[in-house]
Amino acid sequence: MSKLKVLVTRRWPEAVERALAEEFDVTLNESDVPMSQQALAAAMAEYDVLCPTVSDRIDADVIAGGDRVKLIANYGVGFDHIDLAAAKAKNIAVTNTPGVLTDATADIAMTLLLMTARRAGEGERELRAGEWSGWRPTHLIGSALKGKVLGLVGMGRIAIATARRAHHGFGMRVAYYGRRECDPAVAQELGATFHPDLNGLLREADFVSLHVPGGGETANLIDADAIAVMKPGSYLINTARGGVVDHEALADALRSGHLAGAGLDVYPAEPQVPAALLGLENVVLLPHLGSANSETREAMGMCALANVRAYASDKELPNPVG
Ligand code: DGY
Question: Which residue ranges does the record assign to the D-isomer specific 2-hydroxyacid dehydrogenase NAD-binding domain (predicted)?
Answer without folding.
Answer: 110-290
